[in-house]
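testing teh design pipeline on a random one, pls ignore if ur not involved
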């Protein structure tokens, strides 16, 4: 997707067993409702409220929906879209295409107006494609959705200045995973993951077993988001907005980053961390003791039979980014309204649907993603979910804590790559100082490229 992180979405297929009661009776009621007169039809068509009269008046329409959810969680997305097609009251059919070449398709189809009306991507890419995206400020009047039902911080990552361009699909936050069986085999308490960088090092050394191809540590060598989850704890953001429209690059001379890179390098030098990036696959194969990744890994690890735990990294609030639903400029007015109705259904279901049975709640409850939607966070099923309770933010007003740069920085995706290049260079024996100097230069160039020559703070 927008970054290597999203291309790593590797979670297991889940059976959607609790969705049957979500709006099925409502749909049948609408099918038997009397036809509305033309004046009523015009009124409900503009309101987007989805009542029975409007369902009778709606003409069938098909909209395309593109995304890159090629992992097993994509199977859940397929099931949910199928459910929408079966039960929505507006005669809308969503034709979804999940593709590993999603970015390439967007690059070639957006300029020609041939892209799908609805897409799913990281909010960090909203600047990259802004001229081909439609503001959706009118979604609050076109649908029954309410702005106050969304976490403000997550919602704001989909804005450009005052315009809203996306609704949050998921918080892609990062957590610590540990293999309880490997902990026990190494004589460690399987219920006590490391609470510091020092404990990570000590535990990793005890877990590593070269004869079994087992490594105590599972740092990703070249994926900036995973590295920044730890690095940011020591040294803060790599690029930070200064409150006056300028940006400061905080890489060269950052003692926290230097300390992190030296710590990371030692794990590789000691043989406690493999020199590859397929760490998630190795974790699911029972070969990694401690690692950092997002909730998308958990279903796959469950399916593989790994006995693992998940928690916040060293007890700190999780870092990450937000993926969102966008409507492209390729959409006609009718397609735009159909997209907005799909989004209404995603968050609220049909009339009478219980909160825990909506698509947005299913995504959290089945796949373990902390929600950005307040009604889901407040429902009993969510509160009772042990894994979500361990991962949820202490202050729900901070439901999205942006990683690597300030969220308004247009070159966020480039910085993810720059950080990954820096960490990989250190692994392959570039000195920490030289790698940080190069990353500083690359990041400063990104600032001037995306924000203008005068945007670099002195």
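output:
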């Amino acid at each position: 997707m927008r970054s290597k992180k999203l291309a790593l979405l590797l979670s297991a297929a889940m059976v959607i067993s609790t969705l049957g009661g979500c709006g099925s009776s409502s749909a049948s009621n609408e099918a038997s409702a009397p036809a509305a007169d033309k004046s009523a039809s015009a009124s409900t068509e503009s309101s987007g409220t989805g009542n029975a009269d409007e369902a009778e008046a709606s003409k069938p329409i098909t909209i395309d929906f593109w995304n890159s959810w090629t992992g097993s969680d994509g199977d859940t997305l397929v099931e949910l879209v199928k459910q929408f097609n079966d039960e929505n009251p507006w005669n809308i059919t969503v034709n979804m295409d999940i593709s590993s070449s999603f970015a390439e398709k967007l690059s070639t189809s957006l300029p020609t107006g041939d892209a799908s009306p609805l897409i799913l991507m990281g909010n960090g890419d909203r600047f990259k494609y802004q001229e081909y995206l439609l503001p959706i400020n009118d979604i609050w009047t076109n649908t029954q959705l309410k702005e106050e039902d969304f976490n403000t911080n997550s919602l704001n990552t989909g804005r450009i200045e005052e315009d809203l361009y996306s609704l949050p699909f998921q918080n892609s936050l990062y957590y610590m995973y540990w293999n309880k069986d490997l902990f026990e085999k190494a004589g460690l308490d399987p219920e006590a993951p490391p609470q510091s960088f020092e404990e990570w090092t000590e535990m990793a050394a005890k877990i590593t077993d070269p004869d079994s191809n087992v490594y105590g540590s599972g740092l990703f060598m070249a994926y900036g988001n995973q590295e920044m989850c730890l690095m940011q704890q020591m040294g803060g953001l790599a690029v930070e907005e200064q409150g006056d429209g300028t940006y400061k690059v905080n890489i060269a001379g950052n003692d926290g980053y230097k300390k992190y890179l030296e710590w990371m390098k030692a794990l590789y030098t000691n043989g406690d961390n493999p020199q590859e990036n397929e760490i998630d696959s190795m974790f699911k194969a029972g070969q990694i003791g401690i690692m950092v990744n997002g909730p998308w890994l958990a279903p796959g690890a469950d399916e593989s039979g790994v006995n693992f735990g998940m928690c916040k990294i060293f007890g700190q609030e999780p870092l990450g980014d937000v993926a969102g639903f966008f409507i492209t400029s390729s959409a006609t007015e009718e397609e735009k309204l159909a997209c907005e109705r799909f989004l209404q259904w995603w968050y609220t279901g049909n009339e009478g649907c219980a909160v825990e049975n909506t698509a947005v709640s299913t995504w959290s409850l089945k796949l373990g993603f902390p929600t950005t939607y307040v009604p889901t966070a407040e429902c009993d099923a969510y509160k009772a979910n042990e894994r979500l309770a361990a991962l949820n933010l202490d202050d729900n007003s901070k439901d999205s804590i942006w990683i690597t740069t300030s969220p308004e920085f247009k070159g966020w995706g480039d910085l993810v790559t720059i950080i990954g290049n820096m960490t990989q260079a250190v692994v392959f024996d570039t000195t920490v100082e030289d790698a940080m100097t190069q990353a500083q230069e690359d990041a400063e160039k990104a600032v001037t490229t995306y924000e203008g020559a005068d945007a670099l703070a002195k």
